[in-house]
Amino acid sequence: MSATADATADSGRNAAGFDIRPATAADWPGMWAILEPVIRAGDAFTWDRATTEEEARARWFKDAPGQAFVAVQGKEVVGTGELHANQGGGGNHVANAGYMVHPDHAGKGLAKALCAYSLDAAKAAGFRAMQFNAVVESNVRAVAAWQAMGFEVLATIPEAFNHPTLGYVGLKVMYRRL
Description:
The protein has 178 residues and is of the alpha+beta class. Helix content is 28%, strand content 35%. The protein has an eight-stranded mixed β-sheet.
């Protein structure tokens, strides 16, 4: 099963040999090993670079209909994602998600596979669309990946992200129907 084309809300193995499935508490050490360097780098996510492990765990794991999920190869966590309602109340029918991939597995389609999994899981949970609120415009690989997954850029908020080396860059708001 190709996770990029046929991902389901259950587990799916792709040709690269990884499975995507809901995360468990036992996955956390592998998830944190991926999240921490991304958070500390401060160049791709809008999280505070001083986020603690406890804060990250509380933020990444979600209550239903949201979920945290992992891509595993053998027993190793090689990527992770999370899915939740973008807003509450009248906006709770639009999902939001985030993904992080271990650097040793970058460029292998894993981020797209995590995205495909989240799109299927969001649709199965009753969401009607997915919106990314803050895609850093200098993260050109992510912007291209999400566009390839059917997302359109609705707006770019100029200088909304203070990149640690590039200074102020834009944040893209991206959207697609499910």
